[in-house]
Amino acid sequence: MSALILVVDDEPDVEALFRQHFRRDLRQGRFAMEFATSGPQALGLIAAAAGRDIILLLSDVNMPGMSGFDLLIRARALRPDLPVVMITAYEDMPTRARVSAEGAAGLISKPIDFTLLHAEIEARLAAHGAPP
Amino acid sequence: MTRRALSLAQRLTLAFLGLVTAVLLVNGSISMWFAYHDATAAAVRVEQEKADAAADRVAQFVTELEQQIGWTTRADWSRVPMEQRRYDFIRLLRQAPAITELLYLDGEGRERLRLSRLEPDVTDSGNDFAADPRFRGAREHRAWYGPVTFRRGSEPYMTVAIAHAGRNAGVTAAEVNLKLIWEVITSIRVGGTGYAFVTDTAGRLIAHPDMSLVLRETDLSALPQVAGAMAALEERVRTARGVDGRSVLSAHAAIPRLGWIVFVEQPTAEALAPVYTAAYQTLALLGLGVVLALLAGVVLARRLTDPIRALQAGAERLGQGDLAQRIAVSSADEIGTLALRFNEMAARIQDAQETLEAKVADRTRELAQSLEDLRAAQDRLVQSEKLASLGQLTAGIAHEIKNPLNFVNNFADLSVELIAELREAMGKAGAALDPALGAEIEELCQMLRDNLGKITAHGRRADSIVRNMLAHSRDGTSERLSVDFNAMVEETLNLAWHGARAERPGFNVTLEKRLEPAVGQLDLYPQEFTRVLLNLFGNAFHAVQQKDGPGFQPHLRVTTATRAGTVVVQVRDNGTGIPDAVRSHIFEPFFTTKPAGQGTGLGLSLSHDIVVQQHGGEIAVATEPGAWTEFTITLPRHAAVVEGAA
Amino acid sequence: MIARRALLAVPLAAPALAQPAPPRIGWLTAQRESSLAPFIPALRAGLVERNLVDGRDIRLDFRFGEDDAARVPALLDELLRLPVRVLLVQGAAVAPVIRARPPVPVVFVMSSDPVAAGLAESLSRPPPGVTGITFLSAELNGKRVELLRELRPDLARLAVLSNPAHPGEQRERAEAAAAAARLGLAARFHQARNWEQLEAAFAAIAQEGAQGLSVFADGFALQNRAVIARFAADQRVPLVSGWRAFAEAGALLSYGPRLEESYRRLAHFVARILRGARPEEMPIEQPRHFELVVNQRAAAAIGLDVPVALLARADLVLE
Which of B313, B328, B472, C58 is deepest in the core (most CB within 10 A)? Predict the structure, then answer.
């Protein structure tokens, strides 16, 4: 029942960062955040989150092993309507094109503008229909 | 260059010489042949005439005797008294020393009178001579000549018997000592060394200049000329051997009534002397002709080949590169024409060469220029590559650093928020908290907040550096445009000025703009060049700010100008200037004179690279420490930069 | 002319005249020099004619026997030792020299017949190394008697004077005797080879009352010609001889060869021999010209008229 946001990044400190940034939302229980440090781990989380509403999958593009794009494809294979937003440092045209071609919902560049992210999550929550 | 065995001049000379010699030889031979024949024929004729003359002289000797004897053969002599006859005989003996004996035979052949120089005289001996050949022969032929006999084998004698005139005539016979013919024979001149001699029909020598030969009864019938004469052969003149063995030209004439043959002989050498002379003359003329021909040939050949040689020399010199050579041959013939054409050709070649040289020089200049440009481009390429790799490196580093930096900043910011929440939470504790403890905690929180602020600040500074570095290694998303240069400069100046004033209000500097209109449009990367200008303007503003003092009027002058193929922009400030120690380093990356925290030291380095590498221009600095600084940027109008260098 | 004669040389050898020292020509005679006085100049002249000048081209060396024939061999040796290139021999010296067979060419001049003297086989073929000139005196002796007879038609007694030492004298006497016999004359022969004998002969001739005198010409007689002529004049006897010198000396008549010519002709032989000719190739020569010389004065002195015919015949009349 609670909305789930998955964050995938090979950098482990990303979890601490996100938990700190979204401490209030998490404390309020508006949504849950789960973190994976690899593609397969993320897929495992998706599989384990059966029945729950994953409102957003945030994934780094540059990851060892399975890249963000591979994850995108497999995640959407598991959950076709899963919105995926890619996080990347390279905000260039080819990356953009690929992101949209692969069916990602959007692209966020590093360093992450958390204001924008907050807004995006609010929108998703609203779409999910959870009471604010 | 191989030479022929004989030069042209030599061959011409030889040809000429050969021709003339051949002609002379042919001519000379023919004329000599004819001359030989003519001379021989003439000599033969002359010999013949001489022989005839000699025969006449010899015959004359006998004829004279006859005449003298004739005085005693008058018709009336028989009627002359004996004394008178004796007297006549005596007189005859006196007058004709050749007569040794005189005989008078009367009409019946009886010896009437004999008078002798050696023998006793006889008168009316009565001896009968009627059958004697003297009597018979004289009576028959009127004059009878006896054969030559050699008395005592030594002296040649002959009888001359003349019949008297009248009926029943007597005969006077004379014994003649032919030794006395010697005067006659020796007086016969035949050339210089020729001589005459007489033989009888048996070939016995009767008379000869060398009396010894005669007195020996020499028989010459073995000599071919004598044998031939005896045989009465047609050929009256022939070459033969004389008595002494020398080769002679011999001619003979016969005295038939005497039965004698008179020979005249001349040594062949003398007889044919005219021929030999003619031959020698011909040879001498031939020799002279050959020499003259040689000389003439040499001269002619020289004259003919001199122009050719001049041509050859000219061609040689031309071949060796002396194009200014002109051949001085002015004859109107083919060689002159050839020389003329040659000169024209040389002139054309010279022109062409000069043009060529000019063109080559031009091309060389162009090529040198291109080479320079290529080298510059290559340098730039290398630099760009270096920079690209450096850029990639820096980009890589930058990217790698960016992440940790992000975390630094993020966590720093978060930490600041958390401290605020802590203070809030503490505030909520309020009275429950020991004020001293609370104050300590407050102090600690403050220190924490300050620390986090420093962390954030440094993080941002690092971030800015990373961004600058990324900007340094930017790849070709920048565009090359044709811009109004002066407009761009003005806009950028304005931007910089406003930016500087925004940063430090009260900042004032006099701006002077001298922008040449002829500069016009320029192809460049406006984004990057703007950065350069901003950098320069920023540095200028900074410099004048440093110098700021009483009565100091900060002044910035921007100049644009157009040159041939380039555009020059100068930024001059009357700021602090650049010390010598610094000047050589100002374009180095990370070199800055600004205090820590201000400026990254990348500005001028970056500007340098943009100007030089990206635009293919030049940037230079002139300064007077403490007085002024001037940056000069030269941009090519049409850059030869390789586009899209990574 | 000289040059031409020189060029008529038969031999092919080059002239041998150009020798370092002039070749020597020896003259050998048994007589005295005075007896040959008229003739030596003729010889010299003949040599000069042929470009042989004594002292320059040749050297003449004379040896005189002084009338002593026995001296000839010694004189011959002398000349040969000089040495001489050519020997000229005269008169009585001829026979002994030829018999001695000297190693040099010999050119002789003699009045008698060399063939008769046994010195040569024939006139045209002389013996090796020898040649020369002969005067043929023998034949002329008869003629002289004839002339004497013509001179004095009433001649009956003839005296003949001869020198027995003279070669060929015998033959000459025989000729004279034959001629006298032919003419019907009585001839008496007297011989004298020296002065004493000459005196004796004179006495004998004077004694026999000769009407004519014929003297055989030889060196001895030549030497004493003046004496003989005077003797004849004293005897009022016409004198005849062979040589002109006698007529010039006072003889009435001389008939004989022109001796000067002959002596001159000797040079011809010398020149040819010097040029390399061999003597035997040159025949012995006889005189070319005979001359009759009449001494009109001598005739007048003895009261003799010379017949016109004789005068007409004379080659030279001396006044």
Answer: C58
Q: What are the residues whose beta carbons fall under 8 Å from the beta carbon of B312, sequence distance 6 or more?
A: none
Q: Which fold has domain C137-257+291-318?
A: Rossmann fold (3.40.50)
Quick one: fold of C2-134+258-288?
Rossmann fold (3.40.50)
- Is the CB of residue C307 less than 8 Å from the CB of residue C299? no
Residue B1 has pLDDT above 50, yes or no: no
Q: Where in chain C is the domain with CATH 3.40.50.2300?
A: 2-134+258-288, 137-257+291-318
**B478-636: CATH architecture:** 2-Layer Sandwich (3.30)
- Measure C191 CA to nearest chain B CA, in Å: 24
Q: Which residues contact B110 (CB under 8 A, 6 or more apart)?
A: B126, B127, B128, B129, B130
- Parse chain B into domains and list their residue ranges: 336-470, 478-636
User: Within a 13 Å sphere around the CA of B45, how many CA atoms are in the beta-carbon half?
Assistant: 6
Chain A residues closer than 8 Å to B405 by CB:
111
| B548 token code pair | 């700021």
Whether pLDDT at B233 is above 80 = no
Question: Where in the sequence is the domain holding A92, given as residue range(s)?
Answer: 3-128
pLDDT of residue B515: 93
Residues B614, B605: Cα–Cα separation, whole Å: 13
B contact residues 388-417, partner A, Cβ 8 Å cutoff: 399, 402-403, 405-407, 409-411, 414
The whole-number average pLDDT for the span C97-121 is 88
- Does the beta-carbon distance from A111 to B418 stay under 8 Å? no
Quick one: average pLDDT of B149-166?
A: 87
Q: Which residues pair with C110 in a beta bridge?
A: C134
Contact by Cβ (8 Å): B611, B617: yes
pLDDT at B122: 83
User: Which candidate in B183, B210, B270 is best for mutational testing of the C interface (most C CBs within 10 A)?
Assistant: B210
Residues of C in contact with B213 (CB under 8 A): 10
- Alpha helices (H) in B577-646, listed in sequence order: 580-583, 603-609
Is residue B77 pLDDT above 60, yes or no?
Answer: yes
Q: Which two tokens stand for residue C116?
A: 């008769």
pLDDT top residue among A59 and B153:
A59
- Write the burial class of residue C314 (CB in 10 Å: 0-12 exposed, 13-18 middle, 19+ buried): buried
Distance CA B523, CA B480 (A): 7
Read off the pLDDT of each residue in C125-151 and give the average, rounded to a whole number: 86
Looking at the predicted structure, is the pLDDT value of residue C304 above 80? yes
Q: What are phi and psi of C213, to 5 degrees?
A: -130, 125
Question: Residues A125, A31: contact at Cβ < 8 Å?
Answer: yes
Measured CA to CA, the distance from residue B176 to residue B447 in angstroms comes to 197
Q: Tell me if B154 and C284 make a contact (CB, 8 A cut-off).
A: yes
Distance from CA of C17 to the nearest CA of B (A): 20
Backbone angles phi, psi at A106, to 5 degrees: 180, -175
Note whether A33 and A50 are within 8 A (CB): no
Nearest chain C residue to B242 by CA distance is C10
The model scores a pTM over 0.90: no
Burial class of residue B75, CB neighbours in 10 A (0-12, 13-18, 19+): exposed
B642 pLDDT above the threshold of 50: no
pLDDT of residue C202: 92
- Chain B interface test: which of C286, C290, C291, C311 (most B C-beta within 10 Å): C286
Residue B136: what residue type? R
Residues B598-607 have a mean pLDDT of: 73
The CATH number of the domain holding residue A13 is 3.40.50.2300
Residue type, B411: F
CB contact under 8 A, C5 and B209: yes
Nearest CA in chain A to B477: A92
Stretch 82-121 of chain C: residues touching chain B, C-beta under 8 Å: 115
ipTM for this model:
0.80
